[in-house]
Design a protein that fits this description.
single chain; 13 helices; 17 strands; about 525 residues
């Protein structure tokens, strides 16, 4: 499908001219500010930043990079956990943050979301204007460009699936083997010759095939032309429970029992047709220097027996634990509640943060021995972190209603685990990095330090990028990083890479390689 220039390319919703593309060089006072994204471990220092306001400007920027022979990298929200954009050999950073429109496109009968729109803006605009939503995360500053292309999940995923389960089309600026730059729209329609490019953006991750400029969202089962019926409607309100267990009252036995209870409940109640698939919960297990164990749980306030079901969940969680938590219960309108759980990625506490993240997806519980190992690392006396934690996150439900090969992101997981450490002093980099690396390695000691897919693990999540999975010092399993992230879908992603980015222009430390990588040019 050719580019649709009639929407959002040269004019905004008020029919005013699109601002010109902005180039920011080192002598510009804006340069230093643009160099700092969310993770202060990596400061971008390209020849210049290019701020694009339209798909045509993106195409021009890519063409300029190709003609000059300079490596280009793309940023939408700037939340990458690794050095994919700020790598030293990146000479041009294409910043899509000005492209943040969320609108309804009647020609495609779908909602259009530009790549620079944040999760917060997507959520607000879709709900305020049409009363609909898509399942997205709760870190409100994350950009759509990377979030959706990596799969996209959040508190509503057990009920509604993944972000990409509602992806109708994607627009991508690509470069062919002759260095010709063009803009392509790829849809999920079976007869679309570009459908493979759509598929690659249903979990393949950003920075692999081209520059995503915008997405079109419409649920596969939606009918008609009324926008209010083309995406899911969120719950009107949520019933919320928050529980807290101070470290001082928890023995190792209590910790193992509490976390084990959480995992067993989630895995027993996460089938596609489970009556409790609408109950979402996150158990946050921080190092004891960083706070108490906390639980956030929620379900639609108008669902059958909502309060009684929450009671039963909390009872199951505390069974056999020697100390009782403090519990706070409330009900809030859905949009307010979505901010209630939101991760503060802006403001004084987030300024200057350095971070490292890891992930592992589970189809069965961690063993008592693994949980005891986790307890040991979280109670170490020789370590302190600004925030250092492992989160167990409810998953499954409608996520697994989709076959694993129907999208690029693998299916089958019932619980996600998210590992994160943050700090501010660069002199402490090695201390904090070693803590999280050793924790992750020891949790997965029986599978070579990484979550090799087996009866317990399904792998890892590409949106929580972790270059250690490609490092033989930390991955001794013999299983390559791409199998951990993509499983059996990697071969298909390689074919898409060879077709749409044959010169390997779009690449990073964990980028997909062509199946002909030995002969593929690295432009």
């Amino acid at each position: 499908m050719k580019r649709d220039d009639s929407y959002g390319d040269e004019e905004d919703v008020l029919s005013q001219p699109t601002p010109i593309s902005t180039i920011v060089t080192p002598d510009d006072l804006r340069y230093e500010n643009l160099g700092h994204a969310y993770n202060y471990r990596f400061i971008a220092k390209p020849d210049y930043f290019r701020l694009a306001h339209s798909p045509r400007q993106v195409e021009d920027a890519v063409r300029e990079a190709v003609e000059s022979g300079k490596r280009i990298a793309v940023r939408s929200g700037g939340h990458c956990g690794e050095n994919f954009v700020a790598a030293p050999d990146v000479r041009i950073v294409l910043d899509l943050s000005p492209m943040s429109r969320v609108d309804f496109d009647r020609e495609h009968n779908a909602f259009v979301i530009e790549a620079g729109a944040s999760v917060g803006k997507m959520t607000d605009a879709l709900f305020h204007q049409w009363g609909v939503t898509i399942p997205v995360g709760f870190c409100m500053g994350v950009g759509a460009g990377g979030h959706i292309s990596g799969g996209g999940y959040g508190p509503l995923s057990r009920m509604l699936g993944l972000s990409v389960d509602h992806l109708y089309a994607v627009e991508v600026v690509v470069v062919d083997q002759h260095r010709n730059v063009s803009t392509v729209v790829a849809t999920r329609e079976e007869n679309d010759p570009n459908r493979d490019l759509w598929w690659a953006h249903t979990g393949g991750g950003g920075g692999n095939f081209g520059v995503v400029t915008r997405y079109w969202m419409r649920s596969p089962d939606a009918r008609g032309t009324d926008p209010a019926g083309l995406l899911p409607r969120p719950p009107s309100a949520l019933h919320i429970a928050e529980a807290r267990w101070p470290w001082g009252g928890l023995t190792e036995t209590d910790f193992v029992r509490l976390t084990g209870n959480f995992l067993r409940w989630q895995l027993a109640n996460s089938a596609v047709d489970s009556p409790d698939a609408d109950l979402y919960a996150l158990l946050d297990c921080p190092h004891r220097s960083a706070g108490d164990l906390t639980l956030h749980a929620q379900l639609p306030a108008d669902s059958p027996r909502a309060h009684a079901r929450m009671d039963a969940f909390l009872d199951a969680l505390g069974a056999g634990v020697g100390t009782a938590p403090s519990v706070r219960r409330t009900s809030l309108p859905w949009l307010v509640a979505s901010r209630y759980l939101a991760v503060p990625d802006t403001g004084p506490t987030a300024i200057g943060l350095r971070c490292k993240v890891k992930s592992a997806d589970l189809r069965a519980p961690h063993s008592p021995e693994q949980l005891a190992t986790l307890h040991g690392h979280l109670t170490r006396d020789d370590y302190r972190g600004t925030y250092a934690a492992v989160e167990y996150i409810a998953y499954g439900g409608k996520v697994n209603a989709v076959p694993s090969t129907a999208t690029a992101i693998p299916r089958g997981a019932l619980v996600k685990t998210f590992y994160m450490v943050t700090w501010k002093d660069s002199a402490e980099d090695e201390w904090h990095m070693r803590w999280i690396r050793e924790l992750y390695r020891d949790i997965h000691a029986s599978t070579g330090g990484v979550p090799v897919p087996n009866d317990v693990n399904t792998g890892a999540y590409i949106n929580y990028a972790d270059i250690d999975l490609a490092d033989p010092e930390w991955n001794t399993s013999g299983v390559p990083w791409h199998e951990l992230y993509y499983g059996e879908n990697y071969a298909g992603l390689q074919e898409v890479k060879a077709k749409w980015d044959p010169l390997n222009i779009f690449r990073h430390a964990l980028s997909i390689t062509s199946p002909h990588a030995t002969t593929q040019k690295e432009w």
